[in-house]
Amino acid sequence: MRQLTPPSQLSEAELIDGCLAGSRLMQKHLYERFAGRMMAVCLRYAQTTFEAEDVLQEGFVTVFRNLSSFRRECPLEFWIRRIMVNAALRQHRRNAPLIAVSEGEYPEELAGEEFTLANYGFEELLTMVQELAPRYRMVFNLFAIEGYGHKEIGEMLGISEGTSKSQYSRARAILKSKIERLDAQSNHGHFRT
Amino acid sequence: MATSAPNTTPDPRPTGDLEHLFRQKFSEAEVTPRAGLWEQLDHELLVEQNNNYRRRLRVHRWVAAACLLFFLSMGGWALLHQWQAPTSGLATGRAGSGINATSSNGNQSALASTNTDPNTGSASADPTATESASLLGDATAASSTNELLAAENGNAATALAPGLAANRYGSSASYNPNGASQATGVGSSITATAMNTTNPGFGGSRSSASGASLMAAQFGNSYSGTENSMTMSGWNGITPRFAGLRGGWLGSRPDTLKPSLLAAPQPALGMLAAAQDETTPSPTKKWRRLRFGGGYGASAYNPNVDFSQSNGQAFASSADMVSTALRNYYQEDAEAEYRRNLRAGVSQRVAFKAAYSVSKRLTVSSGVEAGQQTATSATSYDFLDGRLVSPPVANSLSNTAFYSARNSAAPIYMRKTSYRYRTVAVPVEVRYGSQRTGTSLYAKVGAAVGLLLSTKSELENYSAGNRAPSTFAPAGSPSTTQRYSLSSSDSPYRKVQASVRGGAGVRYQPANATWNLVLGTTTEMGLTSLNTDPGQRGLSQRRPYSVGMEASVEFNSHKPTPAAP
Fold first, then answer.
1. Among B506, B505, B497, B504, which residue's Cα sits nearest to residue B545?
2. pLDDT at residue B391 is higher than 60
3. Containing H/E element for A186?
4. Could you say which residues of chain A have pLDDT below 50?
5. Are residues B492 and B521 in the same domain?
6. What is the residue range of B323's domain?
7. pLDDT tens digits, residue range B223-237?
8. Cβ proximity of B298 and B346 under 8 Å
9. Percent of chain B with pLDDT over 70
10. Among candidate residues A102, A91, A4, A103, the one with its CA nearest the CA of residue A48
11. Closest A-chain CA to B19
12. Which chain B residues touch A113 with a CB distance below 8 Å?
């Protein structure tokens, strides 16, 4: 009798081969393995959970459709993450057509402040990002989290490099003020207790 | 949605800037999506899989249709080609075997005449056939033909002398009491059938004296009159093939034609109408299925005219006997040269059509179209429209090429001839393809009947004293122009043309639009030759053809209604 391998012990190659063979079970295993992390990615780009689920679904359909073109030169997660980001960008283009925004001014020096990581939770930070305007959210995610340069971001979003820098600067300032407000609230609560 | 611990790995840096803070918290965060999301995804994957399957199926359907069309065309062509083969050749071919068979029996063959009973349809030999059977020294073509037909119906040709026939037949009957498929030859079968009138045990014999009677027996039809014809017509050669088709591929008789079904009481028309009303939806406005439009097509057109052996007597009335003789002598060379240098030209067609949607995928269209076709050739004989337009003697002795063609020291001067045909036609086409919005493929077949309104043929001039080194004469103004109109009685071209055409391509209809654009290839093949008096017969005739592209636009397309939620 053939012994089934637990899904958690399946290697990436086995998962990919199974999906390419058309196994719906393997597709489900692959989905279950990466859905959590990809949902977190989608939530960062989306404004609501429903929107994030749409992006996740579209992304996984793209993953299964194009899995044969995955060349296995990098971990599968990176490839799927990139697909999710692209799906989020498509969703962003559909929902919020890009409005020409003036470049404005942006500070050259962005660093300088220090935050204690342990003081902030994932959900608080996620809420802050989701409350940003869509164009700010996109640029912030792509630059600060994914690590794209402003030139690449400009090409991806169809905006100029300067606009990308300007919008990132603005997004950063908003987030910084929110964090400071959160700090103040927590300090105030701390004093009250 | 449940969140998990965003970052479980210890970070060596407890503090950092804003980017580091967000990157650290988001990098390995996991959020479990809601439970039903996989089912949605599974459903979407299934839908996409079905769409892919449908897309592949559509491609396979087109490929299968193309293959079927190809094989049907090839089969039809092969069948027609076989029919075209002279029957006498077949008879002669088979006659050899008949003679061989006869020679093994003493080089004797019996030839008899039989009568067919028109009432029963069964072929019965005239009792006098045995008496009238004459011994022939060799097998004749007629008897061979009969043997051919007998052999095609499963009978082996074994001609026997009448004296031996009775004995041999007696033994045959003892082998097979039914005698339906017993091998007997023509002569012997006649004798046998003649004896059949006195021997009821051999009733229903399918061996008969003539092929037509044989076929009548197989079809169950009645062929009246004496069927032992000495000369075999073309249809007599074809009909056994039909018999094979009916017996093998098509079955003996369609169910709807069976007497039992025809005799059964038919339901009343009112009942049929009521049943139809229950099953068919209410008819939509039929005028909405009608579309109008126009199109343009450009093709490479080859008139493919073969003037050979067409009008060899055209110059018999010439007063100059030398010229007449030369003309007739060089006519064939000129015709061959014309065909050798014949080049396809441009064919342009403008059409105004009305199309009617018969069903979701079938559209029938018709209208009127005007076209102009061109072609070029070259001649060294002053050959235009199937005739030599200038005296060959003068040409040959002065400066034309057909003289020098035989004396290769002098260069050959070719004069360019150009042809222009203007037509008007009524096409009828059936198109198969989707009529929905978006892009879809289509295929169509059709036919057209048209009139050749006018022709213009030009023979370009060249300077006789200025010989160019090339084989083509220098271009100049046309020296000879011949025009024929619809009313010209001496036109060498056929005035009524018929053709079949087909094509395939892409149809595009934008969303919420009432027009569509059709772009595709088109192929047209003439059913009639362009020249009015071709020297060839039947399928050997040369017919014009064209291959090209066409585009058309149709208006009043059905506007798609939004789907119900």
1. B497
2. no
3. helix A161-192
4. 1-2, 100, 191-193
5. yes
6. 288-555
7. 444 444 444 444 444
8. yes
9. 49
10. A91
11. A144
12. 17-18
User: Given the structure tokens 């009015």, which residue do they identify?
Assistant: B532
Give me the CATH topology for the region A7-95: Rna Polymerase Sigma Factor; Chain: A (1.10.1740)
B97-125 pLDDT per residue, tens: 443 434 344 444 433 344 444 444 444 44
B chain contacts of residue A56, beta-carbon cutoff 8 Å: 33, 37
In which residue ranges of chain A is CATH 1.10.10.10 found?
A: 117-192
Query: Phi-psi category of B143—alpha, beta or left, where left has phi over 0 and alpha has psi -120 to 50?
Result: alpha
Give ranges for CATH 1.10.1740.10 in chain A.
7-95
Q: Do B26 and A122 touch (CB under 8 A)?
A: yes
Rounded mean pLDDT, B502-511: 89
B425 and B312, same structural domain?
A: yes
CB atoms within 10 A of CB A134: 16
Q: How confident is the model at residue B437 (pLDDT cuts 50, 70, 90)?
A: confident
- Distance, CA of B425 to CA of B449 (rounded, Å): 5
Q: What is the mean pLDDT of chain B?
A: 66
Count of Cβ atoms closer than 10 Å to residue B369 Cβ: 20
Residue type, B456: K
The span from the CA of B80 to the CA of B470, in Å, is 45
Model confidence at B93, in pLDDT bands (50, 70, 90)? very low
Residues of chain B with Cβ-Cβ distance to A66 below 8 Å are: none
Spatial neighbors of B324 by CB under 8 A, at least 6 apart, are B315, B316, B318
Tell me what pLDDT residue B106 has. 40
CA distance B474 to B458: 15
Q: What is the ipTM of this complex?
A: 0.86
Top residue of A57, A141, A143, A179 to mutate, by most chain B CBs within 10 Å, is A57
Q: Is residue B509 within 8 Å of B518, Cβ to Cβ?
A: no
Q: Which of A115, A107, A103 is nearest to A177 (CA)?
A: A115
**φ and ψ at A26, to 5 degrees?**
-65, -35
Closest chain A residue to B23, measured at CA = A145
Q: State the residue for tokens 């910084």.
A: A176
Instruction: Indicate yes or no: CB of B29 within 8 angstroms of CB of A122.
Output: yes
Crossing angle between the packed helical segments B234-248 and B211-219, to the nearest 10 degrees: 30
CATH code of domain A117-192: 1.10.10.10
Give the pLDDT score at B13: 67
